[in-house]
């Protein structure tokens, strides 16, 4: 006889503290015969031996103890099952655990049970959890009004909670599937209705769960795969370079043209690799995937792989978001945080608070900081451009978390990508990268040949500080040591490539275009494998950001020459005074060695 294969469904159970979530779970385990054999009797006996009243919540504690001891339990993976499906419970007792699991994708709930204590009524966390479910796009929700036995199964109490909580949920555009009166302790309404609440003729909790629908994998959506890593193989002549990640949506096929964002690099899928299996032609949503590409291009963790034939994601450094803040300290401007979306992790700061909502009462205020448990609409500014989708297009690549002092302190969804200072230049760079004709000689081959990594060494500072002398000394030192190096002063560009705009309406007016063209020339030389040394007077941080939009940021080393740094630029190195160009050049060479740009001799 063929065994029926059951579907799985991830559910989350949320609610205010002590409203009976653990009791509900324990009762579900018991009433569906999902417990290990003898576990229920064992816990009852333990309670009797210790003169404690039995509670179904104790079943969870017992299972956790066994899991801590390394004992395998089926219920640890599928907490309970019905004839229709297996249910996997996301155990998230607090805001932060739930938010972390939901937003990072460690556990994606398809449905939720929201528990309210009939005696205590609707509490702050009842509303906050409801808002959080709405924000994360969980629409299949059943509200479980627990502990009806403590209010003598009074229908008026139940109806009052239904009326009040429905009014709250309507404000956040949530329509729960149903409200279910239960007693987790007595078992009323969990697996079957009882005479205690003959006035209720609706579904039990189990029936309501079975009535939920499994989410369809978004295979029909645009292909999105956050790049987890790039693996290169060298053993036994294996020269494959595999791009690895988990497909968030859509599908990828051999022969597809792929664009990686935010870099805009393109290539074609050469093969789809599967461990211990033959080659595949297609890979779809939900699968961990690795594929090779036909052209050698440099990409790294954090890129978002997309099919060229489909709509592209948003790319910018300014995002409009809805976020839920749980940090110990308020979220405030000027302070730097880490933002994680997909596999990208980047520094971010709060640019503007548009509005703050108290999730417990939906009051909307204007504040200077976002306090703990506040929900806010904000504008965030990332250190560099990131690739994402807005929540209206696809929730999977719009969810993010914020990290403060090594702890996840908040998270939410991206509602819009906003234009930043580099938007127009970035569009040109994306088009350039798409149209770029790659050499048959890859960057790794050049690096191995020249014993160096291509790098842009930017030397900036005030007038008459000796920038050109230092740059030429660096060029000479590296050249004498056998390096492929070239010095280019800004004048080389101003009176050559920039001749058409060098004196048009003043140089400062065309500064951004001068810097953009300098960066484009640098990009070509660096593609040839050169260590390029460039000098420019008093570069600002916005100049550096423009250069980083055009040239890979990890290939730039910035040096300020002069006693005081007179602009807002953030430099990698500061040389207060040029006493001996040769010694300073030697210092720079050692820094390049330490950073792996110049390969040290074996």
Brief descriptors of the model:
602 residues; alpha/beta; Rossmann fold; Elongation Factor Tu (Ef-tu), domain 3; six-stranded mixed sheet; six-stranded antiparallel barrel; 26 strands
Tell me what the structure shows.
This protein has a six-stranded mixed beta sheet with strand order 2-3-1-4-5-6, with helices on both faces. A six-stranded antiparallel β-barrel has the order 7-8-13-11-10-14. The chain is an alpha/beta fold. 27% of the residues lie in helices and 29% in strands. The protein folds into four domains: 7-211, P-loop containing nucleotide triphosphate hydrolases (Rossmann fold, 3-Layer(aba) Sandwich), CATH 3.40.50.300; 225-307, Beta Barrel (Elongation Factor Tu (Ef-tu), domain 3), CATH 2.40.30.10; 315-420, Translation factors (Elongation Factor Tu (Ef-tu), domain 3), CATH 2.40.30.10; 440-594, 3-Layer(aba) Sandwich (Rossmann fold). The chain starts with 6 loop residues before the first strand and ends in an 8-residue tail after the last helix. The longest helix is centred in the first third of the chain and has 17 residues, at 155-171. Mean pLDDT is 85; it is low at 65-78. The protein has 15 helices and 26 strands. A hairpin with a 2-residue loop joins strand 16 and strand 17 (344-358).
Write the layout of secondary structure elements.
Blueprint: E1 7-15, H1 21-31, H2 39-49, H3 57-68, H4 74-77, E2 80-81, E3 85-90, H5 95-104, E4 111-117, H6 124-135, E5 141-146, H7 155-171, E6 178-181, H8 205-211, E7 225-232, E8 241-246, E9 251-253, E10 257-261, E11 265-273, E12 282-284, E13 288-293, E14 304-307, E15 314-325, E16 336-341, E17 344-358, E18 363-365, E19 374-388, E20 399-404, E21 407-418, H9 423-435, H10 443-450, E22 455-461, H11 467-480, E23 485-489, H12 490-494, H13 511-527, E24 531-537, H14 541-550, E25 556-561, E26 573-575, H15 581-594
Helix pairs in contact: 1-3, 11-15, 13-14
